Amino acid sequence: MRVLVLCGDYWHPASVVKDGLAPLRDDFQFEFVESMADWTPEKMDQFPVVILSKSNNISSTDKEQWTTNEAQQAFDSYVRNGGGLLSIHSGTAGYKNASVFRPLLGGAFSHHPQQCPVTVEAKGQYPITQEFVSFTITDEHYFIELDDPDAHLFLTSSSQHGTQPAGWARIHGNGRVCVLTPGHNLDVWLHHGFQTLVRNSLMWCAGKL
Question: Of 4, 147, 159, 168, which is least surrounded by CB within 10 A?
């Protein structure tokens, strides 16, 4: 399966995402875009699933927000017309005031404390958590404002600071949106439990799970 990956921002190097997805290359063909200046809606339409692991910066060196109304509408149209969108970690950050993109995700990042041990656990049973085993690892514990009451919350994250939504899925028109909030550090991405979540999320977003 071909997957377009939008990654790299001021706080999150693209190398973490690239190296974190490397073990999945037997099943997925990833194409990476590190600057939203190189992104076009037409390019996105060539892929059944898009991964967004980029906060609201054009690139790692350009902190200007990429979420023009036109760009937000393009993402909304892509999913509404049958595309799959998987937002991972920083793909929820900087979008609190994005009038179209935040509702598309179903919520947005609020803040995080200093990195600490975070326990990631399944909430109930859902296709994305099949074969997933909970784990604890040092990470940024993302605090989330989850807006969509109809989103299916399948994952939570807990630390000394409390418990937060860590993974949810929603249907948007003819397409699918999935959000995973862990993933600041490479060792999180490479953890077997997280690899399972990413693989299953991609398959679910493509309508194959």
Answer: 147
Euclidean distance between the first and final Cα of the chain, in Å?
13
Amino acid 81 reads N
Which pLDDT score, from 0 to 100, does residue 2 have? 98
Reported pTM: 0.98
* Rama region for 107: left / alpha / beta (φ>0; ψ in -120 to 50; rest): left
Asked whether 168 and 155 are in contact (CB, 8 A), the reply is yes
Distance CA 98, CA 79 (A): 16
179: β partners: 87, 168
Rounded to whole angstroms, how far apart are CA atoms 128 and 201? 6
Structure tokens at 66: 């990429």
Confidence of residue 140 (pLDDT cuts 50, 70, 90): very high
Question: Please, what's the b/e burial string for 154-169 (b: 16 or more CB within 10 A of its CB; e: otherwise)?
Answer: bbbbbbeeeebbbbbb
Whats the size of the chain, residue-wise?
A: 209
CB 76 within 8 A of CB 83: no
Residues pairing with 165 in the sheet: 156
Alpha-carbon gap, residue 138 to 140, rounded angstroms: 7
β pairing state of 84-88 and 152-159: unpaired
Name the token pair of 48. 């059944």
What is d(CA 205, CA 167) in angstroms, rounded to the nearest whole number? Answer: 13
In angstroms, rounded to a whole number, what is the distance separating the alpha carbons of residues 206 and 162?
32
